[in-house]
Amino acid sequence: MSFSFLEFLKSLVELTTGTYLRQVWGDAPWVDPTLDVIGALLVATFGLLIVLVLIWLERKVIARFQDRIGPNRVGGKYGLLQPVADALKLLTKEIITPAGADLWAYNLAPFLIVVTVLMMWAVMPFAPGMIGVDLNIGLFYVLAISSVSVVTILLAGWGSNNKYALLGAFRAVAQMVSYEVPMILSLLIPILLARSMSTVDIVEAQAVPFIIVVPLSALIFFISSLAEMGRTPFDLLEAESEIVAGFHIEYSGMKFAMFMLAEYASALFMSGLFVIVFLGGYRFFGLETYVTSGGFALGNLIGLVAFFIKMFVMFSVLVWIRGTLPRFRIDQMMDFNWKFLVPLSLALILVVALVDKALPVGVSAWTQAGVHLVSNVLVGAVALEILRWRGRKQREAQEGRQEGLESVGVEATVAEAVAH
C-alpha cells in the first residue's frame, strides 16, 4: 500500500495512525517495535510537557481564589510563558550534592520517581482503541508501579545523609502506605462491578458511570488519592511547622524540579484514573462510537476530547481543594485513615458484593445502579451517624475534663482564701 497524505491526515483525526502505518509499511519485523517506541515517546512527551500547563493553571486559579492576579509578566498579560521561564531557571541553577551523601541513592531517586509516573500512563485509555497496552490486570499494574514511589522517597531521604530528610521520608512513606489501603479497597468495588481489572473493560462496563452507582467508593478513592499524592489537605511536607521540605530538602536545581514534575504528572494521572474508573472514561452518551455516513470514524476524536475535558475538570477540583482547605495534623490524618476510611471501605465492599450477588441476572443497568446507589446512601448515612455519635462522646468527655479542672481550681482558690 502506497503512502497517501490525505489518508494519513484522516488517520490522525480518526486516531488510527498506527493501523494506517502498519498497512503502509507492511509486515516487516521492525514495524511493531518502531510503532511501540513512537507511541511510548508520544505518551512520555505528553506527560512531561503537560506539567508546564498544569503549573500555570494552578497558579492562575489559586491566585483568583486569593484575589490576586497571578503570573502576568512573562508571555503577555496572562503569563503564559512563566512556567517556561521557571523551567529555564531550574535548568541553569547549580546542582549541589551534600557531603557524605550516598551518590547512587541520592541521584537515582529523582530519576526513578519521574519514570514510575510516566510508566503508569501505559494503561490509560485516552479514546476507543487509543491505549499503550490493554493489560487484563491494568489496575493492578497501576497500583504496583505507584508503589515504587515509596522506594524512591526512601532513597531520597536515606541518600541525602540528612536526619531531617530521613525523618521527612519516613513520614511521607507512612502517609503513602497508610492511604494505599483504602485506595486499593475502593478500587476493588469497580473491579467487582466490571468483572475485570482491565482499564478498557472498566470503561466499557459503565453504561451508567460508576460514580452514580457507587458514589461512596468514588469519594474514598478521591480522598485516598489526595493523600497518596501529598496534595492539600495532606501536604504536610510543605507545612511551615513541619520538617522543612521533607525528603527532598537536599535537592536543588533540576533534581528538585523532577520531584515537582512527578507530583504534577501524578496529580493529572490520578485525575485521569478517576475519570476512567468512575466517570466513564472516554464514553460520552454513545458519541464515542459515532461514524459519519461516509465511513469517517469521528467518534474516536469525540471520545478523546471528552476524556481530556473530564480529566482537566477533576484536576481543577484538586486545585480548588488546594486553595480552600487547611492542612491536617499528622495524628488527625492517621486517625481518619485507620479509624474511618479503612473500616468504611471494608464495610462498603461487603455491602456491594452482597447486593451484586442478590440482584437477578439480566437486570437492566439503571435498575442495578439504583439499587447500589440506595445501598451506598444507607452505608454513608450509618457512617455519618457513627461519626456524629463519636464526636458527641468526645465533646462530652472534653467538657467533663474541663468541668473537673474548673472545680479543682475553685477548691484551690477557696482553700487559699481560708488559709489567709
Describe this structure in words.
The protein folds into 2 domains: 1-83, no CATH class; 93-335, no CATH class. The radius of gyration is 26 Å and the shape is globular. It has 420 residues and is mainly alpha-helical. The chain has helices at 5-14, 17-25, 31-65, 82-92, 103-120, 138-159, 163-194, 199-204, 210-213, 215-229, 253-278, 299-322, 330-358, 365-419.
Give me the secondary-structure topology.
Blueprint: H1 5-14, H2 17-25, H3 31-65, H4 82-92, H5 103-120, H6 138-159, H7 163-194, H8 199-204, H9 210-213, H10 215-229, H11 253-278, H12 299-322, H13 330-358, H14 365-419
Short description:
The protein has 420 residues and is mainly alpha-helical. Helix content is 70%, strand content 0%.
